[in-house]
Amino acid sequence: MVRLLPSLRSTNPGEANMIVLLSVRRIENVKIVGVVEPALLGKVYRSGNKVLDVSEDFYSGEQVDLNVALDEARTATVVTLIGNTVVEEALKQGLIAAYDEVEGVKFAQMFNM
User: Fold this and answer.
1) Is residue 81 scored above 80 in pLDDT?
2) Measured in Å, how far apart are the chain's first and last C-alpha atoms?
3) pLDDT tens for residues 46-69?
4) What's residue 113's pLDDT?
5) 79: three-class secondary structure by DSSP
6) Is residue 84 exposed (0-12), middle (13-18) or buried (19+ Cβ within 10 Å)?
7) What is the DSSP letter of 40?
8) By percentage, how much of the chain surpasses pLDDT 70?
9) Number of independent structural domains in the chain
10) What is the sign of the dihedral through the CA atoms of 37, 7, 12 and 14?
């Protein structure tokens, strides 16, 4: 489990300059955010007992700049980040400290309790 650290922000806003898909859902007091690189949408990755299903039902969303999506993630209860560039930028900004990988695709899940 990786904790969301809302106080850590990029020192160079706009640096990522990449369009991603941002999905935001609210269930009562829980805000669930998904950030995914568009090329990965609809694909399923497997490695051993790990399965990464980038379903269109869950991850389809608004096209936004990566930094906008990561700012939205800072205020979420649950976040899933999918894609090598997305995860690398989240690491660079101090948003996450660890990630996993399936078939060469990096992903991270964060929980802000």
Assistant:
1) yes
2) 11
3) 999 999 999 999 999 999 999 999
4) 80
5) strand
6) middle
7) G
8) 86
9) 1
10) positive
Q: Is the pLDDT of residue 76 over 50?
A: yes
**Which string of b and e fits 33-45 if b means at least 16 CB within 10 Å?**
bbbbbeebbeeeb
Distance CA 75, CA 66 (A): 15
Q: What is the CATH number of the domain that holds 78?
A: 3.30.1860.10
Domain ranges, residue 103 = 2-111
Q: How far apart are CA 10 and CA 95, in angstroms?
A: 9
Contacts of residue 40, Cβ cutoff 8 Å, sequence gap at least 6: 54, 82, 83, 105
Question: Do residues 92 and 84 touch, judged by C-beta distance below 8 A?
Answer: no
d(CA 88, CA 83) in angstroms, rounded, equals 8
